[in-house]
Amino acid sequence: MGYLDAFFEAPLTRLVGRYVPVPLPAEGTFAGQNVLIVGATSGLGLAAAVHFATLGANVIITSRVASRADEAKRHIEEATGPSRKGDISCLELDLERYDSCTSFMAKLKSSVPGPAALDVAIVNGGIVNNTWEEGPHGWERTIQINTIGSTLMGLLLLGWMRGARDLRPSPAHLVFLSSRECFDPDLDELTKWSQREGGVLRQVCSKKNWPGHWWDAEPNYAVSKLLLMFTIDEISRLARGPDGDPLVVVNSVCPGMVNTQIGRNIAARSWFHALCTWLVLFITAKTADSGARLLIMTALKPKENHGEYCNFFLTPDQSRRKVAGYFGREKAKALQRVVWKEVIDELKANVPELQAGLDGGL
Ligand SMILES: NC(=O)c1ccc[n+]([C@@H]2O[C@H](COP(=O)([O-])OP(=O)(O)OC[C@H]3O[C@@H](n4cnc5c(N)ncnc54)[C@H](OP(=O)(O)O)[C@@H]3O)[C@@H](O)[C@H]2O)c1
C-alpha cells in the first residue's frame, strides 16, 4: 500500500511541496539543447516537456500511439506559445517491446545531428497495473515496462551518448523516474525467490506470486522500481570513463506524490481504494507542473552528483543516508548482482543490438 506513505514519511515537507513549487531555472537554461522525454503524453512527462520547451530546448517526446503524441505536441505548442524557440517532435516507442526500443533508437539517431547533440534523456514512461497480465516477452507487464524495458532504453541511450563525451563541453544527462516505493520490498523474500527455479525475475513475474492482498493497490510497482534502482546503479557504473569521471551523468528521481494518470487503475479497485486515493491526492499530491520541476532540476545535477537518487521531500544528506541504509546492506548488494545478471541475460539473448555494446563494456 505504498501510496499511503505520504501520510507517514516527511508529511510536513510533502505538504509544503504540494503548495509551494520548486522554482524553475533561469529563462533560456536549455536554449538550443535537445531533450528526449520517453513517455510524454500525460502526467510528469508532458509537464516536463512544457517546462523544457519553455526553457528553450528542442523537445523530442515519445508515445506508443501516434495520435496521443500529436495531441501532446499540440498541448506543448499551445502551452509555450509563439515565443517558444525550440522544435517539438514525436517518435513512437513502446518500452514493452524490444524491437520497438531498437527501432526507436534508429529513428532517434537520424532525428538529431549526432550523439553529442542529445543533451538530456529522461526515461519516464511507466505503469501501475493492478491485474496480472503477461507482456509480449513473457514477463509480467509492470516488470516488463518499469524494469526491463526502462533498463534496455537506458542502456541503448547510454551506449550512444557516452561515445560522444569528447565532442561535448560537459557530459549529457540521463535521468530515470524512480519512486520512493523502491524502499518498500522485503529483501529477504526476494533473496529467497532469487534462489528458486527461474530466478528472482521469473518469481516476481509469476502469477502465483502476484500480491493478492485486497488492500494492495499497486502490486509489483514497488518491486519494479526496486529492481530498476539496481539496474540504474549498474548503468551509472557503466557511464563512468576510465578515469572514473562520468561520461554521461546518470541520476534517478522521485518527484513525490503527483496527480497524474498513473493512479487511474488504483481508484477503480474498490470504494476503499477510491477513498484512499482521493484522500492522498487531495492532501499531498502536487500538480504535474510542480512534480515535473523536480525532473528539470535533476537534469541539471553536476557530475559530482552522478549516480545519486534525488528525492524532493528529503534533503540530499537524508536521501544519501536512506539509500545507504537500504541499498548499502550486503543482502541488497547480493540481490543487485543477481538481478543485474538476470536482466542482462534476458536482454543479451533477445536484443542483438545490445550484445556488442555490452561485450565492449558499452
Ligand atoms: N505520479 C506519481 O506520483 C509518481 C511518483 C513517483 C514516480 N512516478 C513515475 O513517473 C513516471 C511517469 O508517471 P506519471 O505519474 O506521469 O504517469 P502517467 O500520467 O500515467 O504517464 C505515463 C507515461 O508513460 C507512458 N507509457 C506508459 N506505458 C508505456 C510503454 N509501454 N512504453 C512507453 N511509454 C509508456 C505513457 O505514454 P503513452 O501511453 O502515450 O505511450 C505516458 O506518457 C512513471 O515512471 C512513474 O512510475 C510517478
From TrEMBL:
| UniProtKB keywords | NADP, Oxidoreductase
Pfam families per the UniProt record, alphabetical: adh_short
At the top level, the lineage of the source is Eukaryota
Gene Ontology molecular function terms on file: oxidoreductase activity
Of which family is this protein a member? Belongs to the short-chain dehydrogenases/reductases (SDR) family.
Query: What is the recorded name of this protein?
Result: Retinol dehydrogenase
**What organism is the protein native to?**
Triangularia verruculosa
